[in-house]
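User: Hey, quick favor. My workstation is busy. Could you predict this chain's structure for me?
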Amino acid sequence: MKLEIITPESKLFEGEVKLVQVPGKKGEFQILTHHAPIISTLEAGEIRVVSTAGEEKMYSVESGVVECTDDIIQILIEK
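Assistant: No problem, here it is.
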């Protein structure tokens, strides 16, 4: 899957990942390969990203939006 995490100031991450975990408004959820299309708002919390190499990164978020379609994930956040 391809992931982009973007803030109003910069692009925080762009690359191939195998798992993304986000703090949705109705609870935390994960996006894996072949996830159904989704658009969701995000609340304050942590975004967890696991790369295809197994490296894990965390990003803080105050609010935002995530969209996933055809294994392309875009996350727009306020830090």
